[in-house]
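Hey,
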Amino acid sequence: MSGTAADQGDVLSLGSINVDRVRHVTDPEFAELERRYGWFPDSGETVEIDALPAELTGEPDSVRHGGKGANQAVAAARAGADAAMLGKVGPDHDTLGVLDRLADAGVGVERVGVAREPTGAAWVFVGPEGDNRIVVQPGANGTVDGVYVDRQYEAVLAADCLLLQNEIPTGPVVALLSALAAEPDRPVVVFDPAPAEGAEALLGCEAVDYLTPNETEHRALGSALEAFDGVVVRKRGGDDVVVEADERFTVTPPSVRVADTTGAGDVLNGFLAARLAAGASLREAVATATVAGSLSAREAGARCGIPTLEEVRAFQADDGTA
């Protein structure tokens, strides 16, 4: 990757595109869900299942656009990158306005495929303190296969940074990373291991440069982290972000009024990729991304509160963290 911190980098996000159904849940309700369903996610965790029990799929409090891949692409665009999305939606995407919403946010959608299955869905359960637990149904995301990914290879190779998550099948992604590892000039790869289940398959891929787990995912990956020799950017909610690189350092997030943490980690990832693609140092990229993630939690919804790079820099200047 080349460029200076003032440049606009090219960022591709290969991953999930969802429509989120949001439900607000009390602490006693969370406790009952955990007791009743052994698979129900912990705070900050994402789990994938084929179908939710009928009692959990009632009328949501709100419906929003999401998916970790799409959220991170939008965040990268807001951070100043030339961002584009790779993935699949269902035949219902026009009715749901999925691609239009991404395009309106400045994300290129020309390479997004259309599957027979419906657009992916996520049920986002938000607690009284704004913490969230996410249950994902793959839908069209589960149809991202080797044929589709192979067709995107030249576009991926030309990018400055590639964002990956774990809400699409891992096989085609592992094959892509294996091919990229042999390239003398490849994009920087940032991998968000969410959901953590099955993410181990990507940790040993040489082409993965940055791993960005939250605390729940970090614990879940456990000894599998030993296979990873890149940079770990550990997201810890309101606590310090821990960066494990050649030199270990931490970044303290600013204190903000939290409305909803849904998507805050995605915002951090998108900004991190955009700043790295623009040639920023690791310290500057993580610091900017940490502020962006925190600011996004001031509004409800995965994308509603994503700040621009200019807004982040203005906050840093006022807060003394620039």
